[in-house]
C-alpha cells in the first residue's frame, strides 16, 4: 500500500476511485459512461444539484451566497477576483504569505491598484504576519488561508469591515468555518474536494457587478451563477468525482468529524518532528498548517538518505517544495492516521539507525 503525501492533486478515498471508475463504464445504470453523457442531461443536472447541495450542507452556507463550479483553477480566480470586485478607481488589499498569495496579488496588479498590507517574505514565509492595517477604503481584502508550500495556515479571519476574499484551495472542507464571515471563497478542487479540473467558488450575491467593469462573460461571476454553473460545458467528470468525495465526507460525519481527525493527524506528526532530534519543523509553531507539514533535517546532508528510506517504506510525495527544501507531508482529509503512523515509524527507524 502506498501512503500518498502529495500536495495536490492528491489522495482521495479509495471508494471514491472505485465508484468513479465504475461510472466511467456505466453511469448509474444508464448504459452510458459519465464521460459521454450530455452536460445538459437530466442525469448530470442531478449531479450538479447534489454537489451544490452537499457543499451547502457540509459548509453550512447561508442563503444569499452562490456556489459555482468553474474551470481555470485557483489561478483563474487570481484574475477573476479583481476583474469582478476591483473598480477602476479603487484599490485592493492583499496579504502576502507565499508563492500563491504573491501570484494572486501580481495578477490583481494587472487589473488595478493593489496594496500589500504585510508580507512574511523576510523569513521565507515561515510565519503569518499578524500586525497590519487593512485600509478601510479597500474594495476587498485578499488572503490565502493555507500556504500549501510553506506549511502555514491562517485559522482566524482577520478583522476588517471590507469584503474578505480567501483562497482556500488547500484547506477548504478540512475544518469548520463560518461562511457568513467571508464574501468570496475560492478553491481549486484538487486537494480536499475532488480531482483537478474544477474550482469551487462561494460568493456573496451582493458582490455581483461590484467592479463596474465590463468583463468578458466567461469571467463574470454573475453569468456563471445565473446559468447554474452551466454557462458553458462544465468539467463533468471532475464535478462528478467531487460529488462522490463530498458524499464520502458526509457519510463520515461531515466537517466536525474530519476536523477532529485532522487535528489528531497533524498533532501526531508535529509531535514526532519536535521530539525526533534529526528533524525540525520550518513553520512558526502558532501558524503550523494542519494540511501541509513542512520540515527539514538538522543535518541537511542526511535528507537524501531519509528520502530513500521513505520511498522504501512506500511513503510517496514527501519531498519538500524547492523553495523550502527538506520535506512536506500533505495530510489532506483522505489521508488516514495509519499513513501518519507509517511516516512517524519511518522517522523513528531513521533515528535508531543513525544514533
Ligand atoms: N492557491 C493555493 C493555495 C494552491 O495551493 C494552489 C496550487 N497548489 C493554487 C492556488 C493554484 O491552483 P491551480 O493550479 O488550481 O491554479
Automatic annotation (TrEMBL):
Domain named Aminotransferase class V: residues: 4-343
Domain of life of the organism encoding this protein: Bacteria
GO molecular function per UniProt: O-phospho-L-serine:2-oxoglutarate aminotransferase activity; pyridoxal phosphate binding
GO BP terms, alphabetized: L-serine biosynthetic process; pyridoxine biosynthetic process
Broadest EC class assigned to this enzyme: transferase
Binding site for L-glutamate: 40
Pathway assigned in UniProt: Amino-acid biosynthesis; L-serine biosynthesis; L-serine from 3-phospho-D-glycerate: step 2/3; Cofactor biosynthesis; pyridoxine 5'-phosphate biosynthesis; pyridoxine 5'-phosphate from D-erythrose 4-phosphate: step 3/5
Record's cofactor remark: Binds 1 pyridoxal phosphate per subunit.
Cross-referenced InterPro entries: Aminotrans_V_dom, Aminotrans_V_PyrdxlP_BS, Pser_aminoTfrase, PyrdxlP-dep_Trfase, PyrdxlP-dep_Trfase_major, PyrdxlP-dep_Trfase_small
Names of the cofactor(s): pyridoxal 5'-phosphate
Catalytic activity: 4-(phosphooxy)-L-threonine + 2-oxoglutarate = (R)-3-hydroxy-2-oxo-4-phosphooxybutanoate + L-glutamate; O-phospho-L-serine + 2-oxoglutarate = 3-phosphooxypyruvate + L-glutamate
UniProt keyword annotations, A-Z: Amino-acid biosynthesis, Aminotransferase, Cytoplasm, Pyridoxal phosphate, Pyridoxine biosynthesis, Serine biosynthesis, Transferase
Keyword Amino-acid biosynthesis: yes
Cellular component terms (Gene Ontology): cytoplasm
Binding site for pyridoxal 5'-phosphate: 74-75, 100, 148, 167, 190, 232-233
Location relative to the cell: Cytoplasm
Enzyme Commission numbers on file: 2.6.1.52
PROSITE patterns hit by this protein: AA_TRANSFER_CLASS_5 (PS00595)
Family to which the UniProt record says this protein belongs: Belongs to the class-V pyridoxal-phosphate-dependent aminotransferase family. SerC subfamily.
Subunit structure: Homodimer.
Chain's role: Catalyzes the reversible conversion of 3-phosphohydroxypyruvate to phosphoserine and of 3-hydroxy-2-oxo-4-phosphonooxybutanoate to phosphohydroxythreonine.
Protein name: Phosphoserine aminotransferase
Organism: Sphingobacterium lactis
Lineage of the organism: Bacteria, Pseudomonadati, Bacteroidota, Sphingobacteriia, Sphingobacteriales
Gene that specifies this protein: serC
